Amino acid sequence: MTPHFALMAEYTAARCGLVAEGLGVAIVDPVPARALGGCPIVLRPFRSEIPIETVLVRLAGRPPGRLAERLMVHLAAERDALGAR
């Protein structure tokens, strides 16, 4: 059976909004989806066999500043916490 996609959205908030309106289901990034706790949606884990790569982009040839370094440490911790679930 081939799936039929009547609606599509690029961003997690938009996908969750469509689901909140009763317009289907969505596969979303769990980090921003958790911030949408006021939406009448239910988040369920989905363990895909398809690897998803996320990258951090920064200026080449120049070390990151102190705040950027702190952000990178925080993002790595969030990534690792998601992998442990």
Helical region count? 3
Give the overall form.
elongated
Distance between the termini: 31 Å
Low-confidence stretches: none
What is the arithmetic mean of pLDDT? 87
- Which structural category fits the helices and strands? mainly alpha
Hey, roughly how much beta strand do the residues contain? under 5%
Proportion of helical residues: 25-40%
Instruction: Indicate the radius of gyration in whole angstroms.
Output: 16 Å
Order of helices and strands: HHH
Number of strands: 0
The biggest beta sheet reads: none
Give your account of this protein's structure.
By secondary structure, the protein is an all-alpha fold. It contains three helices and no strands. The longest helix has 19 residues. It is elongated. The two termini are 31 Å apart. The relative contact order is 0.11.
Secondary-structure map:
Blueprint: H1 12-20, H2 30-34, H3 66-84
Structural descriptors:
85 residues; single chain
Give a quick precis of the structure.
This protein is an all-alpha fold and 85 residues long.
